Amino acid sequence: MSSPLTPAQLAVLREQGFVVARAFLPAARRDALRALATAQLEQAAAPVEYEADLAYPGAPASRQAEGGGTVRRLLDAYARDPLFAAWATDPAVAASLQRYFGQPAVLSRAHHNCVMTKHPRFGSLTGWHRDIRYWSFDREDLVSTWLALGPETAHNGGLWLVPGSHVMDLPAERFDAAQFLREDLPENAALIASAVTPELEPGDVLFFHCRTLHAAGRNQSDQVKFSVVHTYHAADTRPIPGTRSASKPEAALPEAALPLG
């Protein structure tokens, strides 16, 4: 059974904007999720997002080009299978986030809520950004979980993150029109140079804040990388009506009978 984040881990999350919980998900559940994700990827079971549709650097030029059928994300994980729903609302995740927010947590089904895949050759890279760039909530305090279903390193496209960037006030001109950090600016280059890439083992979970700057490179291995990603907010945080953030019903997490820390 998984254990919630400790007070020390919560302190790291608040201070640097992310924390890794090692061996958070037991092997049997992790392996069952990986087998399910692999089967659904082989079927391209809808709904899915294709690399070619995003046109990020390194993606196929179109659906008709070589690699055009490469899936980037299996969407709406919560509704895909009870195994995914059980992970999204896991009691240890719920308790961890209740301690972080100081109140019960809610799963957003409109953002992340997916199995993120990264393929050799046709998996694209993702530029430096904050997830909150395209989210619309009345408070910018959301936390995502990134469950590694296999090893993740810089070699196979693991995440890079800038410690402490969730509390940095960065002016708009340091970002481009799509709100990716401009890598041509010297001040941004210095910021990027401070980034780290936590190496994850299967079953590890990265908790990270929605304002933490992060990026991911290409998968240079010969194996598809699988990660399950969900996003949560406090019960009194609300998506703004009429926006994408309010486009799907949310799911309340079970309240934890634990002291808040």
UniProtKB/TrEMBL annotation:
Cofactor(s) for this UniProt protein: Fe(2+)
Organism of origin: Bordetella bronchialis
Name listed for the protein in its UniProt record: Phytanoyl-CoA dioxygenase
Record's compositionally biased regions (Low complexity): 249-261
Coiled coil: none
Keywords: Dioxygenase, Oxidoreductase
Alphabetized InterPro entries for the sequence: Phytyl_CoA_dOase-like
Start and end residues of each stretch annotated as Disordered: 238-261
Molecular function terms from GO: dioxygenase activity
Domain of life of the native organism: Bacteria
UniProt xrefs under Pfam families: PhyH
